[in-house]
Design brief:
mainly alpha, disordered C terminus, 11 helices, single chain
Length: about 260
């Protein structure tokens, strides 16, 4: 669970609700199903028009990473790469062929497979960097889905408010209901602006961070495999790979695993 995301939502929504209550309002004033249908339905439709369905579905599939932070395995992979370096130095890089079946991470498995097959280091780097570049281009579309939703929802909220005002203007003969009707009409604007700034845009930003973390891990794996092919000393390789890890805790865990492998 990503504590920052849940805490942020709680603080943001709680602050708005608390402010409403302090002003003498109540939750019933902003809980309007019609406004929600207009804003979220209109936003969803606009996003579907802009993006192909596979991109849209992929973005919402990755939405879970905004709320639930997956345990990083980068430290374990550093330990594995150091272990492979020791083995390749002792028995030759072809000896890693037996380890390929136990590797579940597709990028690392493909890189090592090419290395075992005798691909030149420069050629392997070009091939895997091209794959990373194509993957990064596909990944860039995912946060863009939520950024677009954040752009559309305030405008759709204004549409909802105008529709509500149209209904109010048609009943000006009931002057005692005009004020209440105007207040209800503007709830759609609250939904549109609130959804954009409290969810869609922050979710896009958090998703960008998650995707960049995955790209850094792939860069680390590629650098590790190429270094193994070039015969780098395992201890030097460990220090080099730890430089890719942003979190001190992860780096410390990687060093511990590598130390255990050597002993």
């Amino acid at each position: 669970m990503d504590k920052a995301t849940f805490t942020g939502l709680l603080v943001a929504v709680g602050g708005i609700v608390l402010g409403l209550l302090l002003e003498g309002g109540n939750l019933g004033q902003i809980l309007q199903p019609t406004a929600a249908i207009i804003v979220f339905g209109g936003t969803l439709g606009a996003v579907l028009i802009q993006f192909p369905l596979p991109v849209f579905l992929a973005a919402f599939k990755r939405l879970a990473s905004v709320f639930f932070e997956r345990k990083s395995e980068a430290a374990d992979w550093v330990g594995d790469l150091v272990k492979y370096a020791n083995k390749a130095r002792r028995d030759g890089i072809v000896s890693l062929d037996r380890d390929l079946q136990r590797i579940e991470e597709p990028f690392l498995k493909k890189s090592l497979m090419l290395a075992v097959d005798g691909t030149e280091p420069q050629e392997l780097r070009k091939m895997m960097e091209l794959e990373m570049s194509n993957q990064a281009e596909r990944d860039d579309r995912l946060p863009a889905v939520f950024e677009s939703a954040g752009g559309f929802s305030p405008t759709v909220g204004i549409i909802g408010a105008v529709l509500g005002l149209i209904q109010v203007m048609q009943h000006l003969d009931k002057i005692d209901e005009v004020g209440r009707g105007i207040a209800v009409a503007f709830v759609a604007t609250i939904y549109g602006v609130g959804a954009a700034n409290l969810f869609f845009l922050p979710a896009a930003g958090k998703l960008k961070i998650r995707l960049r973390e995955e790209q850094i891990v792939q860069e680390m794996m590629l650098e590790g495999v190429v270094s193994i092919m070039e015969g780098m000393n395992p201890r030097m390789l460990e220090i080099k790979l730890l430089g890719f890890l942003a979190e001190v805790k992860s780096a410390g865990r990687a060093a511990e695993i590598s130390s255990n492998e050597k002993t």
